[in-house]
């Protein structure tokens, strides 16, 4: 895979978003049960029961994940030209069906004798020689 910018490393070891979501949900449930406690009810039992999913989420959160770093090898690509693509598809909206033309334009670079396509955007200049990153 080639990109114009290097891909940053992905760190899922230190991401504890799932634990935080489970903890917040259990806290809201505990507060709701505490507010609506009309009878003489032992809330410590509810607290202990709600701590079980929080503990499971903590165990999963702190013991799973990976750190992935991409190679990001710098290569030079020479501009070859633009490549266009078009096709016709049926699109349905409710009871209406209509034929729609889809048009795309790609930028073609040559890297080590092989051609690489990138999706072209309007208003962007594409250099004759570009620094690309191979991953």
Describe the protein's topology:
Layout: E1 2-3, E2 10-11, H1 17-35, H2 43-63, E3 67-68, E4 73-93, E5 96-111, E6 114-119, E7 129-134
Antiparallel strand pairs: 1-7, 2-3, 4-5, 4-7, 5-6
Helix pairs in contact: 1-2
Outline the structure in words.
The chain is 30% helix and 41% strand. It is of the alpha+beta class and 135 residues long. The protein has two domains: 10-68; 74-134, no CATH class. The protein has a five-stranded antiparallel sheet with strand order 1-7-4-5-6, with no helix packed on it. It has a two-stranded antiparallel ribbon with strand order 2-3. β5 (96-111) and β6 (114-119) form a beta hairpin. α1 (17-35) packs antiparallel against α2 (43-63). The longest helix has 21 residues, at 43-63. It is elongated and about 80 Å long. The model has no long low-confidence stretch (mean pLDDT 92).
DSSP strand (E) fraction? 35-45%
SS field, number of helical segments: 2
Query: For the CA atoms, what is the radius of gyration?
Result: 27 Å
Low-confidence blocks of residues:
none
Order of helices and strands: EEHHEEEEE
Oligomer: single chain
Number of strands: 7
Instruction: Estimate the mean pLDDT confidence.
Output: 92
Side by side, the strands of the main sheet go 1-7-4-5-6
Spatial gap, N to C terminus: 5 Å
- Major β-sheet, in short? 5 strands, antiparallel
- Structural category: alpha+beta
When the domains are counted, the total is 2
The shape, in one word, is: elongated
Proportion of helical residues: 25-40%
């Amino acid at each position: 895979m080639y990109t114009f910018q290097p891909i940053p490393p992905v760190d899922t070891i230190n991401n504890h978003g799932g634990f935080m979501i489970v903890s917040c949900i259990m806290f809201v449930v505990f507060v709701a049960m505490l507010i609506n406690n009309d009878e003489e009810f032992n809330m410590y039992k509810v607290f202990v029961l709600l701590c079980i999913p929080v503990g499971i989420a903590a165990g999963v959160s702190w013991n799973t994940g990976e750190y992935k770093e991409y190679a990001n090898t710098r290569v030079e690509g020479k501009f070859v030209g633009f490549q266009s693509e078009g096709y016709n598809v049926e699109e349905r909206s409710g009871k209406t069906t209509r034929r729609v033309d889809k048009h795309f334009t790609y930028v073609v670079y040559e890297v080590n004798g092989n051609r690489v396509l990138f999706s072209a955007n309007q208003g962007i200049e594409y250099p004759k020689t570009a620094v690309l990153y191979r991953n």
